[in-house]
Each structure stands twice: as structure tokens, then as C-alpha cells.
Amino acid sequence: MRMYRREEEVDGMAVDPLKAVHTVPGITGHEVCHYFFGPQYRYDWETTLEQMTVLETVSDDTLVFLQTHKRIWPASQRDVLFWSHMRKLPNENDRDGPDLWTVVNNSTTHLDYPPNVGKCVRIYLKVCLLCQTRVDPPKDGAPLTRDNISCKITYCSVVNPGGWAPASVLRAVYKREYPKFLKRFTAYVVNQTKNKPIMF
Ligand SMILES: O=S(=O)(CCO)c1ccc(-c2ccc(C3CCCC3)c([C@@H]3C[C@@H]3c3ccccn3)c2)cc1
């Protein structure tokens, strides 16, 4: 996994944009996005999650979430309200190749859930998960198995922590939590899919 961060501050708060690139054998981009987008799986892999509610089902590929995350000392507890959209993208570079898949999470507002009215500080985020499946067909024309596929995952995020917290503390949280989060999530997808038919 390669991780790239740029140190940026908005109103004195660290909002460091992050890009992580991670290639995982044995899974497809559709499978990665399916398990990242699906609310029914999130408590399985998102261990910093305390509560998650689907506020709105806009369509089968677009949901509005309200999430409360566990407090990460010494920062106060956070919540986040965002729309999440999953879609397939045509492979412009290889029309015969597998499609790309993406999930975008973007902070939004909701009249019934104004920010910062309870114990939580509202964070604001933009997240893009872009997945490119690679197929290396078996030489002898044998059927395709999970040994012949891999997925290049590009995860980009900008998280505005909402309320002030020392930049040094936030950067330590970012540095510790993101690699754990991405490794845990991808290991979850490998485990969920290993005995299932490949979902392209
Ligand atoms: O990709 S997602 O959309 C997946 C859906 O859940 C998503 C990812 C990350 C967050 C998130 C929420 C709060 C916090 C912090 C901010 C100050 C104190 C808590 C963090 C910091 C960056 C660290 C972090 C990174 C990764 C995972 C958990 N923690 C991240 C929310 C959503």
C-alpha cells in the first residue's frame, strides 16, 4: 500500500488530503465497491463506527448516511452526514477490459439532523474509492479463478474535522487510522468473497 498526504490547514485545522493506492489479489472492483457501499456490511469492517443510520434511500445506488464515530482521544466525538453513490464506469483505456467501479461519499446537510447540536462535532468529508480490476487469463485456457484476478484500489479522502483539534493530534490519528482502515476493509472483502463466484 502506497499512501500520499499533503499537509493542509483550513481555519487552523488539519484537513490533509490523502491518496492511498493498494493492489489486492483475488477480488474485483465491483466486489470492493459492493462491500464498501452496502450499509449491511459496514459494522463488520468499520471498527471506528459507533452508530450508522441510512437517512434516505435516494435510489438503489445512492444513499444518505448519518454516522457517529467512536471518540479518538483527545479529540471529541465526531459524526458525519453524507450521500454515498456507487457506479460502474466504462474502461476508456481498454474497451474489452473489465469496467471500473467507484463509490463517492460526500458530506451533505439534512433538515432533521443539523450539525453540532448534541455531543458530536460534525466532520465534513469527500471520499472517492476507485477500483480497477485486472484479469490475467490462465495460459492453458482453463476456467478463470480468483488466482487470475486482482484489483487496484485508489482511495482519496479529505476530512475536515469540524471542530478545532491540534494538527499534530489529527495527523497522528490520520497516520495511524487510515492504513489500518484500508487493510482491514480489503481483508474483509477477500474473506467475504473467497468462496463465492467472481462478481465482475
Ligand atoms: O471512507 S468513509 O466514508 C467510510 C465510511 O465510514 C470514512 C472514512 C473516515 C471517516 C473518519 C471519521 C472521523 C475521523 C476523525 C476526525 C477527527 C477525529 C476522528 C476520521 C479520521 C481520519 C481518521 C480515520 C481514518 C480512517 C478511519 C477512521 N478514522 C475519519 C469517516 C468516513
How would you describe what is shown here?
- Keywords: Coiled coil, Cytoplasm, Lipid transport, Transport.
- It is found in: Cytoplasm.
- InterPro entries: STARD11_START (IPR041952), START-like_dom_sf (IPR023393), START_lipid-bd_dom (IPR002913), START_lipid_transfer (IPR051213).
- The protein has 200 residues and is an alpha+beta fold.
- Helices cover 22% and strands 40% of the residues.
- The protein contains three helices and eleven strands.
- The chain has helices spanning 29-37, 39-45, 167-193, and strands spanning 2-5, 9-10, 13-14, 18-25, 49-59, 62-69, 78-89, 100-107, 121-122, 124-135, 149-160.
- Strands 1, 4, 5, 6, 7, 8, 9, 10 and 11 form a nine-stranded mixed β-sheet that branches. Strands 2-3 form a two-stranded antiparallel ribbon.
- Strand 5 (49-59) and strand 6 (62-69) form a beta hairpin.
- Helix 1 (29-37) packs across helix 3.
- It is globular and about 60 Å long.
- The protein binds the ligand O=S(=O)(CCO)c1ccc(-c2ccc(C3CCCC3)c([C@@H]3C[C@@H]3c3ccccn3)c2)cc1.
- The ligand O=S(=O)(CCO)c1ccc(-c2ccc(C3CCCC3)c([C@@H]3C[C@@H]3c3ccccn3)c2)cc1 binds at residues 46, 48, 67, 69, 72, 75, 78, 80, 105, 123, 125, 127, 159, 161, 170, 173-174, 177-178, 181.
The chain-level mean pLDDT equals: 95
Q: Please count the helical segments.
A: 3
* Main sheet overview: 9 strands, mixed
Give the uncertain stretches in residue-range form.
Answer: none
Q: Classify the oligomer.
A: single chain
Count of extended strands: 11
Terminal Cα separation, in Å? 23 Å
Secondary structure: helix percent? 10-25%
Radius of gyration: 18 Å
Order of helices and strands: EEEEHHEEEEEEEH
Quickly give the structural class: alpha+beta
Which cofactors or ions or other ligands sit in this model?
Answer: the ligand O=S(=O)(CCO)c1ccc(-c2ccc(C3CCCC3)c([C@@H]3C[C@@H]3c3ccccn3)c2)cc1
Strand percentage: 35-45%
How would you describe the shape? globular
